[in-house]
Task: structure prediction
Amino acid sequence: MESTNKNGIHGDQEVAMAELIRGHGHLWNIIFSYVNSMALKCAAELGIADVIHRHDQPLPMSVLLTKLSIPLSRADSFRRLMRLLVHSGLFASSTASDEKEEAYALTPISASFLVTSKAENMSPFVLTILDPVLVDPWHCLSRWFTSAAEPPAAFDLFHGKSLFELTGNNPEFNVNFNRGMAADASFMAKLILKQYGDDVFLGLRSLVDVGGGTGFLATAIADAFPQTKCAVFDLPHVVSSLQGNPTVAAIAGNMFEFVPPADAVILKWILHDWNDEDCVRILRNCKKAIPPKEEGGKVIIIEMVTTLENEEDVSIHDETTETQLLFDVFVRAAVPGKERSEAEWKSIFMAAGFSDYSISPISGSRSLIQLFY
Result:
């Protein structure tokens, strides 16, 4: 005989109700997950991590409010913001036995990535990715999917121009975008040089950073390997700030037309901006710029190599998989490109005329690829 609970609900109905409640909670979590991103942006804009870092010990709420110039009328709202940021792992809270108010401290994440005086500071990257210029196009993603027109990305549909056209025409966003990319490049450079420095760069006489922005990656390589002559190759409005740089040369141009000659060419987070055909065009120009493998030539690529080969991979609920899924859709909404699996990368490499490659992991979401012919 089927059991019923005290409210007269049958067992199978009770299970169904429990699943419905869990599903509702999960839906709410997805709906409001953007609040985590906006809370992080708020923390970066306010400089919360900097204030706590300068105090060099847990900072009481009242002192934090004063240091941030937040009026007491908003103290309760700010406490709730800090509670969320603590839950996210960005800050830690404590209440000393002799204190009546909470005090806040940095965690390893905020101490490394949100303190602006640290080399690993990622605050500019946070502010770039969460800038309205990049966030607003998400409101027309469904319209882009069903649009009879053919803009290559939701970004183009919303702004009426591509991301790269907009950065060329919007000086303020261009500066912020380059700062954000530089922050990411600085951290990537540290990881790459520590893990693979000698194996990848030792012995190179010259290197060109294609799409190298403000030159953080090229500068880090030049500092670590002074015998390597490094240059940054990017659009004129990007490399203008590098003119006269004593460490790296600045070369203005378009990678779809040519790539300056060098022993090695490096592309960090470039190819995922473009479709397969454009990637092949870029890589063919890179191949023309370097000598063959026997003479030390190589193309170095810093990109995500996804493990999302099939539905079983997508169903794995770990942080790396979620990062890959999120970033893949983010890229697709912003530019005509996409993230790629090893099989997809290999197809592009072979089409561009390369005969060999190697892949080495850098972090949970990115890899270093070396191409040879």
User: Anything to note?
Assistant: The radius of gyration is 24 Å. The chain has 18 helices and twelve strands. The CA atoms of residues 310 and 365 lie 18 Å apart.
